[in-house]
Amino acid sequence: MEGHRDAASLVRALQLVPHPEGGFYRETYRSPLRVGTSRGERAAVTVIHFLLPAGTVSVFHRVLAEEIWAHAGGDGLELHMLSPAGRYELVRLGRDADSEQTHAVVPAGYWQAARPMGLRYVLSTCVVAPGFEFSDFELARRSDLAGAFPTLPEEVLALAAP
Q1: Considering Cα of 14, then 17, then 23, then 25, what sign does the dihedral take?
Q2: Is residue 162 situated within a structural domain?
Q3: Rounded to whole angstroms, how far apart are CA atoms 50 and 23?
Q4: Structural domain contains residue 29
Q5: What's the CATH code of the domain at 41?
Q6: Within a 10 A sphere around the Cβ of 111, how many other Cβ atoms?
Q7: What's the pTM?
Q8: Exposure string for 57-66, b = 16+ CB within 10 A, e = fewer
């Protein structure tokens, strides 16, 4: 595993598994309350631990629900968001109140990518409402984002899957 040895220890201790977008995760809560959506019934909310070791990224993906990222430990995190209209935003999450936020909301349907800012790892808690389902999840290919948003800088496009 890339990154700091503490990342490997956390993967074991928290019983995390690889996520298709990159990094490691484990669902820790799925609400028994069910809500209706245009895609069918979903849990009202789901929660995961999400860990990115240094040198890895969570590639651009989108979820058809709101997602709240909360910094839970380790280094800071860059959270890249791209609206359906092409508006790009970068938010830094972490413990430094002067330059980082403790949490951020990614609106439903936005493309999002994340990258650790340090040399160890970043641990986040991610809350999705209505609850996460892999059928509501899509990975972005670099060529698709470049075609849809031709003014995106190369360093942002580099966060998408090849």
Answers
A1: negative
A2: no
A3: 7
A4: yes
A5: 2.60.120.10
A6: 27
A7: 0.95
A8: bbbbbbbbbb
Is 81 within 8 Å of 112 (Cβ atoms)? yes
At position 128, the amino acid (one-letter code) is V
For the residues of 93-158, what is the DSSP string, one character each? ESS-TTT-BSEEEE-TT-EEEEEE-SSSEEEEEEEEESPP-GGGEEEPBHHHHHHH-TTS-HHHHT
Give 21-80 pLDDT, tens digit per residue.
Answer: 999 999 999 999 999 999 999 999 999 999 999 999 999 999 999 999 999 999 999 999
In terms of residue numbers, what domain contains 9?
A: 5-157
**Parallel, antiparallel, or unpaired for β 103-106 and 40-43?**
unpaired
Q: Is the dihedral of CA 146, 159, 81, 156 positive or negative?
A: negative
Output Rg (C-alpha) for the chain, integer angstroms. 15
Tell me how far apart the alpha carbons of residues 24 and 50 are, in angstroms, rounded to a whole number: 6
What would the mean pLDDT of 15-20 be, rounded to a whole number?
Answer: 98
Instruction: Report how far residue 65's alpha carbon sits from residue 94's, in angstroms, rounded to the nearest whole number.
Output: 23
Q: How many domains does the chain have?
A: 1
61: CB partners within 8 A, 6+ apart: 21, 111, 112, 113, 137, 138, 139, 140
From the CB of residue 151, how many other CB atoms can be counted at a distance below 10 Å?
A: 8
